Amino acid sequence: VQLQASGGGLVQPGGSLRLSCAISGQFSGSFIGWLRQAPGKEREFVAAMRWFGGHTYYADSVKGRFTISRDNAKRWVYLQMNGLKPEDTAIYYCASSNGITSSVYTPTMYNRWGQGTLVTVSS
Question: Smallest Cα–Cα separation from 96: which of 52, 51, 54, 62?
Answer without folding.
Answer: 51
